[in-house]
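Why run this: before we spend reagent on co-expression, it is cheaper to look at a predicted model of the complex and decide which construct boundaries make sense. The entries below are exactly what would go into the expression plan.
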Amino acid sequence: MSAVLRAPRYAGIGLVWAWRVTFGVLFPTTCKYEPSCSEYAIQAVRAHGIVKGGALAGWRLLRCNPWSHGGHDPVR
Amino acid sequence: MMHLIATTIPILTPIFHALEGVMKHVLNFFHLNVGLPWAWSIVATTVLVRMLLVPLTIKQIHSMQSLQLHAPEMKRIQQKYKNDKQKQNEELMKFYRENKINPAASCLPMLLQLPVFIALYYTLKHFNANFLCTTAATSGLTKAGGPNAACQAVVAHTNLSFLHFIPSIAVGTTVFWGGYVLLLVYVASQMASGLFMAPTAQRSQRILFMIMPLVFVFVIARFPAGLVLYWVTTNLWTVGQGLVTRRLVQRTPAPAPERRSSRTPPQEDEGTSDNGTSPEPSAPAPAPAATGRPRQVRRKKSSGRRR
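The model came back. Tokens follow.
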């Protein structure tokens, strides 16, 4: 895949990293899922691109609520 | 990296603007309708936000109670995979899922606090324009020396202080000496809340939570003092909530065999020390100490996992 087509993915991963080094540390928490939400987002965007991967990450964040059970939940 | 943030910000601008509008109304409500000073309006807003998030934490308390119930089994898993941290984590996660418990905090409640933070940041950044230098506030003063002078006059006559040590919540924390006190309180509260927010974190992660406030205090020092006030308040709420949660969890009956096995040995030791009078006075003494020490360690560990 060309670098131009990959650019949105890197942008998305960059955003996750921006989150990690700022608010991620300011509101410390451990995720109930494995991999964690941010790691999941990176993997999803890397594997499926910014649109589908972003949607997957968003859905994962919604699932990461107090009523879910957490656990092992890798990107498919 | 800077370019990346710059390209994404135009998309977010209308969202941030909308958040600022909502926050403006909330702060105005507490200041004008409730009659609180500006600084206390921020505290009230923070408390309101955290109260809205309480239903999410009740679920968390239930989860911790069941976590305590399953503590012995989990300890067995930890022992089994002592040398393989990754495997140990996976097995624990599997165990949580099988028994329908979730010890770790969810990402969503934490994420819900971010919009509040952003809203408050922009509201305080544009504090004068939002509240003090509106046309309504300066209308009576415009004749004196133009809108700018009128604005200055309103700002000078508005009480923006907090507990006498912070003169203004709308300026940076390092402008006044009281700001340094606030920053110090921030660091302490952030460390304390880090302990309560991430009970299942590993040791390395916990150390990170202790160090990060010391790094971030330099970033936060540039923020308006009101934002640091929000942060301190929300941290203190986290700590208080954690203490209450711990209390409630401890009230539930702990697994009986665990406690009894740790309590009986010292009693036996007392019996032997009474029998053996003179020959070995020093021998029984270390025995209770030896049984006492692991018990303390166990208690520390379990209380750490409980939350």
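Residues 2-33 of chain B form the longest helix (32 residues). Chain B is about 80% helix and 0% strand. Bring this page to Monday's planning discussion.
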